[in-house]
Amino acid sequence: MKLWTGRFQKELDQTTNDFNSSISFDSRMFEEDIEGSIAHATMLGQCGVIEPSEAEAICRGLEEIRSEIKEGKLEIDPEQEDIHTFVEGELTQRLGSAGKRLHTARSRNDQVALDIRLYLKKQADSLIEQIKGLLKVLCKQAKENAGVVMPGYTHLQRAQPITFGHHLMAYAEMLLRDVGRLEDAKKRMDANPLGSGALASTTYGIDREITTRLLGFSSTTQNSLDGVSDRDFCMELCSALSIVMVHLSRFSEEMILWCSWEFKFVELDDAFSTGSSIMPQKKNPDIAELVRGKAGRVFGDLTTLLTVMKGLPLAYNKDMQEDKEAIFDAVDTVRMCLTAFTPMLDTMKVLPENMRKAAAGGFINATDCADYLVKKGLPFRDAYKATGTLVARCLELGLTLETLPMEEYKAVCDVFDQGVYEAISLEKCVDDRKVLGGPARENVLEQVTRVEALIQ
Question: Are 176 and 169 in contact, with CB atoms under 8 Å apart?
Answer without folding.
Answer: no
